[in-house]
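Q: I have 400 residues here and want to know how they pack in 3D. Can you give me a structure?
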Amino acid sequence: MQEFLDELDGPVFVGEAEKLEMRSMATSVASVESTASLSTDLFYDILRRLDGPTLATAACTCAAFCSISREERLWENVCSSMWPSTNREDVKSLIASIGGFRKFYADCFPLIVNKEVSEYHWNKYLEYPEEWTEAEYYGDMDEFETISPSDFVSIVDIRYKDKAICSKVLWGIPNANGFNGWFYNCPFRIDILTTYAARDDDGEGEVTLSVSDGLPPIFSMEKERKDGKLWKELRDGLRLSWIVVNKKMKQAANLASWSPLGGQRHWPTDKDFVIRFGSVLPAKDILPCQVVECILSMKFRVVHTEEEGVQTTLKLTELSMQLEDMEGAHVNGRNSLLILKEALSCHRSKNYSEVLESCHLYSKVQSELKEEKMRSESRLDRLCILSGIAAFITFCYCIL
């Protein structure tokens, strides 16, 4: 139990002031327990008001708190507060089948950190996808046959300034039926909104953000392009959680970076804002590059502005996942399933700075690889030009 609590202690998503306040309250109650006999119901009522990291901290203060903190109902409250999609009855049944809410929170609260990125060196592996053999690219077929797309469940939640604005649950992977289908050899991609729009039984409306949600008013797109106030508010206020669960393996992991890793205005209209989240996933013994980037893209479009009323409305038009290797090539469906399987058991950390460091290191190594590739191509081009000149001179010499 202590090891579990240590893993959860130290919030990634909770403010320091709130953390100190909750810790103080937990310690105070523990002191009261030593001088007076308080009922278990009172302890439970106190603990049910705490967030996950503070609940784990409180459990370390006394034996009574430690015992009560094992209650699944407490962790169900924590999960539903952080991930509203876990309030669904089908998701509750799924979480119960893979070990319960306490285990689910311990698996999905820390974020994925890949410390093996620094071990990648471009010259240790085959440089270009066209040089990979079929066996190297497609991986172990025997292992792949044990993986079914229907085993995976995506639990997605979006927040803006601590307000839940979107919750989606996707059972299985769309268009992945049949082991010999096109999915396994084509670029892997999951588009949550497209999938939901295609469902006849989907009663959920569009996901929008407006001034009432805390967006700054846009007086004109030209002014917005200059000051970038709306873009800054989106970048600082949006939070994404994309949890992948494997029902067969009974494992789960959060593939998102919680906060945006980057973004841009989408050419050519300047009315689209693309925000990128993600993580670096291990691909050892799956792809020659050993690591891949899980890219989670969110696109908002300005659909309504009124200068007189100073109103702004943004519509969520894209929410997708795809995997790219070091070369920037999209990973196919077959290898993506293998990588997702490995991601469910890879290293994680509650320290958000480690998460950012891992992603920035990947970008650095990827940039170095591209630069080296460009230098190699430049040397090859010069060699071809010199060879052509030499051949031309030789030809002229023979004729003369």
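Q: Anything worth noting?
A: Confidence is low (pLDDT under 50) at residues 1-23, 25-37, 121-132, 137-141. The first strand starts at residue 111 and ends at 112.
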